[in-house]
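Extended Data, panel c. Modelled sequence:
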Amino acid sequence: MAADLIAAAATAWGRSAVGIVRLSGDGAANCAGAVFSPADGRSLRDHPPGRLVYGTLRDQEGRPVDQVLGTWSAAPRSYTGEETAELQCHGSPMVLTLALEALYAQGARQALAGEFTKRAFLNGKLDLAQAEAVMDLIDAETPAGARVAAGQLSGELSRRVEEVYDVLVDVMAHFHAVLDYPDEDLDPFTVQTVDKALAGAEEGLSALLKSYDRGRILAQGVPCAIVGLPNAGKSSLLNALVGYERSIVTEIPGTTRDMVEERCVLGGVLLRLMDTAGLRETEDRVEQLGVERSRRAMERAGLILVVVDRSACLTREALSLAQEAVSLAPTLVLYNKCDLPPADIPRSLPDLPGALEVSAKLGTGLDALAQAVAALFPQGGEEAPGELLTNARQAEAVERALGSVKRAQAALAGGVTPDALLTDAEEALSALGELTGKTVREDVTARIFQRFCVGK
């Protein structure tokens, strides 16, 4: 089936040194050649695939607009598996606009968001886990996050899934072979054989599911709530961590009323910071709403930073807040304003982790805070980075597959004959197929590629 021709800018929109226009589909090289004239006088398609060619880019009226490099790739040896072409221009938004207008005039259409990668998936150049990793790699904000996405893009997660998938396929294939060819000299289909195979699948899936917590943190970061009583220095701490004045800071208690969110990398860990309203009893309805949001932020946080004013006396409210935080998530207690004369505050709070002394104003103690965060969320693990599950869709599919395998194990232990277990095995295979795209529904595929940008 002929693939219609699509075109889009493959680089971010804005002024830059280089801007790339990408085409994919039948006639991509000819379409690019219609607006690009190689300096040697030959057409783009007359040059070998994969070779960069210097020449002139022309608008739809044939007027020169840039000196660029062009290249093309023949199907199926391309990113999408289709014939493709690229024009590497200077990174002027106007040049890219004129190039695209000229290509559209030649019959190409505007690519949809994620359409290049979706075509790579549909044409078997990438499986679904690899396709998801493309956007994760683009969005990566830490070295660890980039390594995870790069590993998934190279197929590490897919290979780990395939190991379990193949075990279950072998079980089903063996059973059907024995059933359909009873006269052949085949190994008997025994309970022991099935039990061993299911145990191996259960072990592999359990380990994979356990990787989700670490993979999610590396890829998406840790939701981190900054909480404390009014005027403890929460907004000053957020500003110190992100490196600029993100939150308004005054000496007036209760300045922060709505939640302020920002990201930063601390100790190699991506933190999704939430600067919350000071927690106190108040008659102000607007401040009450801020306090309610602060409570909800604590409940969904993966890390809580409790900020305590070191220069003021430790109150029962501050102690109660710290104890509540510990009950909800990993917590670090920060004695802020250590640059001021201290009040009589104990070095650590009862039944709580050791506190750190910081000065958000001067940046004192932030290195120690970074070390504490790194210790709470270690980067290393037994698995290769690319073998980790990194999103809820993947984890849910593995969880369903694991449930099917466990049901099969329970039925086998209860004396059910092996042939009755095939339904559970098929359900496990279907769930695992959703990870790589073997059995994924069209609506799920569409939803996955919606988060891509145009040109990818």
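Confidence is low (pLDDT under 50) at residues 252-257. This feature is highlighted in the accompanying rendering.
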